[in-house]
Every structure is written in structure tokens, then in C-alpha cells.
């Protein structure tokens, strides 16, 4: 897709749901890049945004707590 056409949807969207894999840091970086590109076309505060992190398998200890921490969990909670 041509860059000039890629984000035309930004002008008419009512909301955006970004989905990324907690197990794949590049997927998070990709949606962050889309978000920053969208911000050039429209005030991001005007667009409701939902950020969803998916995970295929998880390792939990006997206490029910996760055994490991993903680097993605260390990312800022707001853009």
C-alpha cells in the first residue's frame, strides 16, 4: 500500500483496537509505529484506543503468579 493511502482511515475512524503479541516485541513496535503515524493525521486524543496484548501460553507458579516478566510489560502505560 502506498504511504499516502495507508492511513487515510484515520480521518474517518471512530475508534481503534490495536492487538499485539506479548511474545513478539516487534508486533508491539509495529502498532506503536502505526499509532505515531496516525497522530500525524489526527489528534490522537480524539480517537478512543484499546490496546490488547495476547499470549499463547503462560507459565504460572503454584501460587498462581506468572513465573516470568515480559519486556513488553516494562513499556510505558500511556503514549
From TrEMBL:
This is Uncharacterized protein. Residues 57-79 are annotated as: Disordered. The keyword Metal-binding applies. It comes from Timema douglasi. The keyword Zinc-finger applies. GO terms for molecular function: GTP binding; GTPase activator activity; GTPase activity; zinc ion binding. InterPro entries: Arf-GAP_GTPase_ANK_PH, P-loop_NTPase, Small_GTPase. Residues 64-79 have a biased composition (Basic and acidic residues). Keywords: Metal-binding, Zinc, Zinc-finger.
Amino acid at each position: 500500500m502506498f504511504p499516502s493511502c495507508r492511513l487515510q482511515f484515520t480521518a474517518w475512524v471512530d475508534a481503534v483496537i490495536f492487538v499485539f503479541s506479548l511474545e513478539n516485541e516487534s508486533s508491539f513496535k509495529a502498532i506503536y509505529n502505526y499509532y505515531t503515524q496516525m497522530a500525524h493525521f489526527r489528534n490522537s486524543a480524539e480517537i478512543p484506543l484499546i490496546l490488547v496484548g495476547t499470549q499463547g501460553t503462560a507459565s504460572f507458579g503454584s501460587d498462581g503468579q506468572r513465573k516470568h516478566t515480559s519486556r513488553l510489560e516494562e513499556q510505558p502505560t500511556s503514549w
